[in-house]
Amino acid sequence: MSNILILGAGRVGASVAEQLVHERYNVTIVDENPESLKPLADRLDLRTVVGHAASPAVLAAAGAADADLLLAVTPLDELNMVACKIAYELFNIPTRLARIRDPDLLAHPELFIDSNFAIDHVITPAQIVTDYLVSLVETPEALQVLDFADGKAQLVATRVEAGAHMDGQDLASLNRLLPKIDRRVVSIYRKGHRVHPDGNTILQVGDEVFFLASTEHIRDVIKEMRGTEIPIKRITLSGGGNVGFRLAKALEKDYQVKIIEANRERANWLAEALPNTLVLRGDATDEALLESEQIERCDLYFALTSDDEDNIMSSLLAKQMGARKTIAIINRSRYVDLLQGGKIDVAISPAIATIGSLLAHVRSGDVVAVHSLRRGAAEAMELIVHGTPATSRVIGKKLDDIKLPSGADLAAIVRGEKVLIAHGDTMIEAEDHVILFVDNKAHIREVEKLFAVKMGFF
């Protein structure tokens, strides 16, 4: 798959385009606003077309006849749906993805079949981001939690804390501290730079450690990096939009949840829709409001409005006033690196969080899941190995005998119900789900080629 047609040059469209261009795909992006396209054309090697996303003439001019995949991410659900139908009927584009936000439409999946709007895969960014945030609530000492193999294994990023068992220890010490728990540290980031891990690598306070383990063992490994985990009870959300509402709904039965919402009408609606959540109308950057609501007793503060500056300021204020941990949505991806790990514990770009679910459909081979890491610089992927020893470059071989591209690390294999952490003598079998960490996206194509079935298989 090499020719990708993207409709909509907003944050998600632009972010996906940038990722795909860096991976050497042929990308064309369509938008009605030339001002949205110009910055992309100036800095990326892609083609831009000004026009309406559901116009057959515009789609033809954008190369729809030769496109392998269409991604419709304009701001309008209806436009994305119609564009997919036209792409299917007039241009026979093989794979069509659309962003759909309206819950009323999402409640009727029959709308998306080929005989209706012909959408192969529906992307709902608000739900993807919500699921991501829920995983951070469930594993509160993590910076990132990513599921693989239907939740059997997780890749987790956590930061080494002063006084933890692993502070100042080499990675080999994990064998002594966790003798019965298999896990694999796939990467360490220290002051923004990657440290390739081996048994002699000594961890330092502030290191971001990425490790993979069976889901049931994740908390045990985190405990060695962080110390005793304090349970989460009280959660405050700033912003009752799509993500704020979905997150409160997911959490309100198990936690004490408050939402601060500035819009009176929206606040009234939230109060009716969320019976177990306390809804407060006000401004989350109002120090008096935070003080009256005892923000110092808050275990987890989420800044979820659509305004980056408000999210940054309210998170900083909440932290200064005593909130234990702050997580902020930051729409401008370039701000994320500046903020994460300072007074704001976790900064999340919704566009980057969404990209993984899109990339899984772009990758060659049988890719099950893709997750962007390190603000899009690295990637973790799960793919299924097909073929036989005669038609595959990896089946029947030990990991030590497989030449992985530089910066790629095969972390685990899921075989049936078993999660097997990869070691040098681990042998790959047909139909294994392999989980890989790739620290540089430039090497993704090499990884795909290594695990692809040789042409003779067909």
UniProtKB/TrEMBL annotation:
* KW Iron (keyword) present: no
Q: Where is the RCK C-terminal domain?
A: 143-227, 368-453
Q: Which UniProt keywords apply?
A: Ion transport, NAD, Potassium, Potassium transport, Transport
Alphabetical list of InterPro entries matching this protein: K_uptake_TrkA, NAD(P)-bd_dom_sf, RCK_C, RCK_C_sf, RCK_N, Trk_Ktr_HKT_K-transport
- Protein's UniProt keywords contain Phosphoprotein: no
RCK N-terminal domain residues are 1-123, 232-348
Concerning Pfam families, the annotation shows: TrkA_C, TrkA_N
This protein is called: Trk system potassium uptake protein TrkA
Source species, please? Answer: Iodobacter fluviatilis
The lineage, from the top, is:
Bacteria, Pseudomonadati, Pseudomonadota, Betaproteobacteria, Neisseriales
Gene name for this UniProt entry: trkA
